[in-house]
Design brief:
Layout (H helix, E strand, L loop, with lengths): L18 E4 L5 E3 L9 E5 L6 H19 L3 E6 L3 H10 L5 E4 L4 H5 L9 H9 L1 E2 L9 E2 H12 L5 H10 L5 E5 L5 E6 L15 H9 L4
Parallel strand pairs: 3-4, 4-5
Antiparallel strand pairs: 1-2, 1-5, 3-8, 6-7, 8-9
Helix pairs in contact: 1-7
Length: 217
């Protein structure tokens, strides 16, 4: 298996295997654990420095019960060290099962884009206003929206966070519904449809359940 893809994995393609350290307990988590059992909703995030990811992880944790009731397992992949992730979730627990991928192997093998920080991208980030979670009084430029959500969290960045920002930004995120045979049946890639205006958006429970209802068989 190659370590990188030029485009995201698409429905109908086989999901790349992975084995990662668990972020919520000791041991490892692999895609093979789910094969032949239940479908899997896989959500791939960047590091915990990202306020949009912290919100999305919380959303996925809330959606987990509805997806499980529909017969689907859930797994989040966080691009941070296992120790850093375990420390964070010790104080902000989630019911979502989590794996740690500090080297972003899954991001590359699933083909999630990492745009070049060109002047055009920087201009778009400065001028595009977003409110991806709906919690801000009004849409703000991307970086201001991120800072506003972080302030609402009371989140204080650590040295690990600062190092991970340098390695990861502006890596995009994605979600993949994988059937019990290991085939991707639905995919959602951040900014895939809306461009920069899609930064920080996460699928709703209804959108994910609609994808589950469309599973063959």
């Amino acid at each position: 298996m190659t370590d990188t893809r030029p485009t995201p994995i698409r429905p109908g393609e086989r999901a790349p295997d992975f084995t990662l350290a668990a972020a919520d307990r000791d041991g490892t988590i692999s895609l093979a654990e789910y094969r032949g059992k239940n479908p899997l909703m896989l959500a791939i995030f960047v590091g915990l420095w990202c306020p949009f990811c912290r919100r999305s992880i919380a959303q996925m944790g809330t959606a987990e019960a509805s997806l499980r009731a529909a017969g689907v397992e859930c797994l989040g992949v966080v691009a941070s060290t296992p120790d850093n992730a375990r420390l964070y979730f010790k104080y902000r627990p989630t019911r979502l099962r989590l794996a740690a991928d500090p080297e972003m192997v899954t991001h590359r093998t699933y083909g999630l884009p990492r745009p070049a920080p060109t002047p055009q991208l920087m201009e778009a980030l400065a001028t595009t206003r977003i409110n991806p979670t709906g919690e801000l009084p009004e849409p703000l430029p991307v970086q201001e929206a991120a800072m506003a959500i972080a302030q609402r969290d009371g989140y204080v960045a650590t040295a690990t966070d600062e190092a991970e920002v340098g390695k990861q930004w502006p890596q995009l995120k994605g979600q993949f519904l994988i059937d019990r045979d290991g085939i991707v049946r639905w995919a959602n890639v951040e900014c895939g449809e809306e461009g920069v205006a899609g930064i920080g958006k996460f699928p709703t429970v209804d959108e994910m359940l609609a994808a589950v209802r469309a599973l063959p068989g």
